[in-house]
Amino acid sequence: MDSTTDxxxxxxxxxxxxxxxxxxxxxxxxxxxxLLGCAVILVGLNSLVVLSFLFKRxxxxxxxxxxxxxxxxxxxxxxxxxxxxxxxIFYTLSKSxxxxxFETIPAISCLMASxxxxxxxxxxxxxxxxxPLVYIPDMTTxxxxxxxxxxxxxxxxxxxILPMAWYPHLEDTPLKACHTLYILKREFTSYFFxxxxxxxxxxxxxxxxxxxxxxxxxxxxxxxxxxxQNEIKMKSQLQILKTATMILLPYFAGWMPWTFFTAAIVYxxxxxxxxxxxxxxxxxxxxxxxxxxxxxxxxxxxxxxxYRQAFRAFFGCQTQMIGHxxxx
Length: 328
Known about the structure:
By secondary structure, this protein is mostly helical.
């Protein structure tokens, strides 16, 4: 397969036997700008959500706790994205296996924690709509522990500890430079990483089918009945559901293209051993994936009055008490 020379990276011969791919100066400069922008957006916006929950400016509910954990995972992803700038500037860091592991594997673990947050939030919405009269959103010590373990235990053990102990050396990889596909063992990506992403997305999609059916049913019932306390509670749950759906759409749009293109490389010997056009595509479509982690706080502010008031308070804006008249 021909090596790409489209301004992204070029092959350089080393030791007269193997090809070493070097990113062009133009691509490095562009990547540094994009990475810095992504890091600032992710850390800055998600910090608002984290601080809002910690300082009790938003209700301590289970759905908000999942959004809080999602903000932690997304903000941490932005923090580790920042270190990619240095490996782009300094040639020796781009060839360092230890540094590549430091900047890449924690970010992968945080991204996987984000997917488990999405799954947990989806299951929480299913429970809320299935049994709206008995569903209790308020947090307890048990809920804090179980939801935190559900989000973080697999990302930490499988997607952080395991790849930290089981990894290739960059000089033994086809690219010979730091990249997500090559700092992870190909077997790990093939049998753990990609299947987990597909499984989580499939699970979320399957769970959302009954959720949407129940949401349509409850919306019709609310329109046909006089408002009472139960109807107001159901409207609140439907509002949260709409917010969760808006979170899912950009998440799928960002993750799925990268996942499919990555699968096309990892499961094909020629494309994996001789990075070419498809590999170049993955370099660029990774940025929408990363930026989806900064979209969520904007959605919260647009859809949920309590988040909007909390964000305004952090910027010193005067807030006024408004009725929680939620649209359906």
